[in-house]
Structures are given as C-alpha cells and as structure tokens.
Amino acid sequence: MSDHGREAVGQRFDSALMLHARDRSWAALQGICERMHPGISEDEARAQAMQVFAELGMERLWHPVIIRIGPNTTKTYRERSLPDVRLGENDSYFIDLGLVFDGHEGDVGDTFVIGQAPERLACAEAARDLHRDVANMWRTEGWSGQRLYNYAHERAEAMGWRFNHAIKGHRVSDFPHSVHKGGDLGDLEHEPAKGLWILEIQITHPTEPFGAFYEDLLAEAVP
Question: Is-above-0.90 flag for pTM?
C-alpha cells in the first residue's frame, strides 16, 4: 500500500472531532484513575471503567479496555495478564483506552503509581518524558515513523530502561480506521501526518518486574 493510502480517511472524517475524541478519552482515563485503589483487580477496574464511559457518552470501544497492574505492566496488549493480580499499597498500573466519540477514535494511555514506590514513579515519568521527546522530534524535525522509533529505542536505552519493540504505534481515524490498513507507525517511511497516528511508548525496568506505558495522538496541541 502506498504511503498516501496508509493515511486514507473516511468521508465522515473531521480533524476537530479527532481532537474531541482525544480530549474525551483523556477525561475517561482520569475518571478511571480516580476509582483505582489498593486491592482492586484488573477485572474490577475494567468494570469501573464501563461506568465512567457511560457517564461520558462514549459510543463504543474500538479496542478492549486494557488495565495492567504490577508485574502485568511489562506485558503488551497482545499478552494475557497474570491472573489474580491486585493493586498493592506501593504499586503501579497503566490504562490503555481505545474509545469512539462522535464516530471518531481516541486512543490514550498513561501509567500511575500509588504509595511509596520511587523506582516505579521514575519509570512512569520516563515513559512520559520519552514520549514528549519523540513527539517533539516529529513536530520540529519532521522525522519518519521509522526514525522516530529508532530514536525512541536509543533514548530509552540511554535513560537506563528497556524499550519494548513490539509496541510501534498505529493509525486512528473516523471509525473504523482498520479499513485503511495503515499498519504500524514504526514502519512508516515518511513523516506521519498530524492527527492520524498514535505514538506509543512502553518501557520496562532492566531487572525488576514492572514497566510503564504512555500513548497519545501526534498532534500540534497537547492535552
């Protein structure tokens, strides 16, 4: 498929509605975060998430709600969580949402720490910092998707974290983006267009069983 085809959109596509879906998705993520507490399981957290979505008027999910706690924060979206994991007193978790509002797809993710867990907090902050750094290279240098992910790998290693190469970003659009077969951002050979691509970052501690995840739309504005 040509690069142009990889960035195709539907007849209903509206860039303003993409930003609206992004904003609503971040609001949903924050609403879930407010309901997280020590002892909660991933299944219980997902049930709480559905209540948040209903309050915000979400139309549908375009990918399953992913909430990873503790050792499961090292796993990608394709891997199953270890069973019976509950949020500890000094622990971390991440939330990954793929929601549809007004026919447009949002996709956001972030990592949070509760209690006293300085290494986990440093990991969460590193994922955000790395995402911000890579997104800035897109805004200021116009790098291709491939170069952005090569840079992300180099920076993560220099920061002392392991970079998850299975996470390479992807398209979003008016629902469903999958009909356009956009593929991975990390394979894109040209500069990604704004408002169409999700930059995903996942890192893990080099020796301990925890990691961090952050994702957001490549766009001019920041939430």
Answer: yes
Cross-strand partners of 41:
86
43 Cβ contact list (under 8 Å, min separation 6) = none
CATH topology of domain 3-217: Creatine Amidinohydrolase (3.90.230)
Question: How much is the CA Rg of the chain, to the nearest whole Å?
Answer: 17
> What are the pLDDT tens digits along the chain (223 aa)?
345 689 999 999 999 999 999 999 999 999 999 999 999 999 999 999 999 999 999 999 999 999 999 999 999 888 999 999 999 999 999 999 999 999 999 999 999 999 999 999 999 999 999 999 999 999 999 999 999 999 999 999 999 999 999 999 999 999 999 998 889 999 999 999 999 999 999 999 999 999 999 999 999 855 4
Domain boundaries, the chain: 3-217
